[in-house]
Design a protein that fits this description.
424 residues, alpha/beta, 5-stranded parallel beta sheet, 3-stranded mixed beta sheet, 19 helices, 8 strands
Length: 424
């Protein structure tokens, strides 16, 4: 008898057996109603692996009596799709063809555009799946002819029933009764990162390696932790998940939540991505803490230098300190907003000639600044003298506004005093 992976053997045969995805497959869910109507449009299934995309495609083909062809865009070509088309209208596909194209993001623009002729003639129904955001990776012409459904990452509670069913199948297959220590199934369900296939593969490995006594098999929590070690990590340095974690890290620190900031830092470091963590923390120090606590920049730089010197895992200590420091520090984006406003003017061509008294001319080298009309601020009380610095076309532009924090308000008060003295 050929070996069949547990994840395939337990694959649901009906919508009621699919775990999770209640938002689209629960009673009244849009995708469920479409499937039950029997009128299946072209669709794009978007979501993490192991969340039921392929399973639902199988159920659709079964319930609509269509011949299912599966292709993976990492290896398939347009000739493979044309071979599928050859079945249309033959005894091989009397009720039509459903083409399931996995990982559509690996098709280039030309390949994706070539799908249009097959989508538009109605001879086949296309269900494309992707683990990446389709609005970034699938071309608009394809999206405009398809309905997008998002498959969400499963919660541990959604996975537990599937793991229990899998255990029952293994007991029947091996003719053995399992003695399961408390917490084993729950740990496998949470350590899989929302991937049912990964949880079932872990269960199968745990079952095959478990100590046996006659017809009894012992599944221990300690062994389950070894099997599930690091498996909950979903991380691709080139994918959406990478940027989602970095975004969540910055927004958590900006929102002054040290606990969330530490959580997202931990996810980066657990994946071994020290470089991205360091770069983003430096950005946060300048962009979000900013002038409310200017010392944050050199302090965070010191933490980053220490982290790179130590390497992982010890790097987590100074980087954790940087996260807590910035999350609990006062915040100001005044300098960030100011430079963006200045950059916007430059890009729009709002510049102009540099005022004569600011230009770098040879006369400066001989102490003849007055011939330019330049006033040397250090020669005046408070090291300040009023003069024009911006080009004439934008001489009244204001980019920087003092933040409401203590540090910037103190600077504002200082300059108000100095400037008032210079006008007296």
């Amino acid at each position: 008898m050929d070996y069949r992976p547990l994840a395939d053997e337990i694959r649901p045969a009906s919508l009621d057996e699919v775990v999770g995805q209640r938002h689209i497959l629960g009673p009244g869910g849009m995708l469920r109603r479409i499937i039950e109507s029997g009128s299946i449009p072209n669709m794009v299934f978007y979501g993490p692996s192991g969340t039921g995309k392929t399973t639902v495609a199988n159920i659709i083909a079964k319930q609509t009596n269509r011949t299912l062809h599966r292709l993976n865009a990492t290896t398939a070509s347009l000739s493979d799709i044309r071979d599928v088309m050859a079945d249309v209208g033959t005894l091989m596909a009397p009720n039509g063809v459903l083409l399931y194209l996995d990982e559509i993001q690996y098709f280039n623009k030309k390949q994706q555009q070539s799908l249009l002729e097959f989508m538009e003639n109605g001879k086949i129904t296309l269900i494309a799946s992707t683990t990446e955001n389709p609005y970034f990776y699938v071309f608009n012409a394809v999206l405009s002819r398809a309905t997008v459904f998002e498959f969400k990452q499963l919660e541990p509670a959604d996975v537990v029933p599937a793991v229990r069913r899998g255990l029952s199948i293994l007991e029947q297959r091996e003719q053995a009764a399992a003695e399961v220590e408390d917490g084993v199934l729950e740990h496998l369900s949470s350590a899989c990162g929302g991937d049912v296939r990964k949880a079932l593969n872990g269960l199968e490995l745990l079952f095959s390696a478990a100590p046996r006594s006659g017809q009894r098999v012992s599944l221990t929590l300690e062994d389950a932790k070894v099997v599930g070690q690091r498996s909950a990590m979903r991380y691709d340095r080139d994918g959406d998940g990478h940027y989602d974690i970095l975004s969540a890290l910055q927004k958590s620190i900006r929102g002054s939540d040290p606990n969330a900031g530490l959580h997202y830092l931990a996810r980066l470091l657990e994946a071994g991505d020290l470089v991205s963590a360091c770069r983003r923390l430096m950005v946060i120090a300048a962009e979000d803490v900013g002038l409310a606590y200017p010392q944050a920049v050199p302090i965070v730089k010191g933490c980053i230098d220490a982290a790179n010197m130590l390497g992982l895992p010890e790097a987590q200590i100074p980087l954790g300190e940087a996260v807590v420091l910035m999350a609990t520090a006062p915040k100001s984006n005044s300098a960030y907003t100011a430079i963006h406003a200045a950059m916007s003017d430059v890009r729009k061509g709002r510049t102009g000639d540099i005022p004569r008294h600011l230009q770098n001319v040879h006369a400066d080298s001989f102490g003849l600044e007055r011939e330019q009309g330049y006033l040397y601020p250090h020669n005046f009380p408070g090291h300040y003298v009023e003069q024009q610095y911006l080009p004439d076309p934008i001489k009244d532009a204001v980019y920087y506004e003092y933040g409401e924090n203590k540090t910037e308000q103190a600077a504002k008060a200082y300059w108000q005093k100095i400037k008032s003295l210079s006008t007296n």
